[in-house]
Amino acid sequence: MAKKSCIQKTKKKKSLIEKYAKKRAELKDKMSNPSLDLEERMALQEKLENLPLNSAKIRHRNRCWLTGRPRGYHRDLGICRNSLREMAHQGLIPGLTKASW
């Protein structure tokens, strides 16, 4: 089980990402305009830099919803490999069986 503080920190980052996503996208679209001169581009870049660091999409870390583990994350189910294995053994995931030969 991950520390509660790490899980809360991840939730806070996710909310910041959602809050500033539209503003960040607008600034990036304006910056990609090739007709802008250098001063305008630098002003837009400064506005982008003044946004919170944790509002950047790249700072988000996927975590298992069951244990909070950040590594071995499966996107399809939203759980880590350890939880996936345990749930497969118990038959809790429909259509998933452990191979044996």
Provide structural commentary.
By secondary structure, the chain is mostly helical. Helices cover 50% and strands 4% of the residues. It has 3 helices and 2 strands. The chain has helices spanning 4-31, 38-50, 81-90; strands spanning 73-74, 79-80. A two-stranded antiparallel sheet has the order 1-2. Strand 1 and strand 2 (79-80) form a beta hairpin. Helix 1 packs antiparallel against helix 2. It is elongated, with a radius of gyration of 20 Å. The chain starts with a helix and ends in an 11-residue tail after the last helix.
Counting DSSP H or I runs of 4 or more residues, the number of helices is 3
Helix percentage range: 40-55%
Poorly predicted ranges (pLDDT <50, ≥5 residues)?
A: none
Strand order of the largest sheet: 1-2
Task: Output the keywords.
single chain; 101 residues; 2 strands; elongated
Task: Summarize the structure in short.
50% of the residues lie in helices and 4% in strands.
Lay out the secondary structure:
Blueprint: H1 4-31, H2 38-50, E1 73-74, E2 79-80, H3 81-90
Antiparallel strand pairs: 1-2
Helix pairs in contact: 1-2
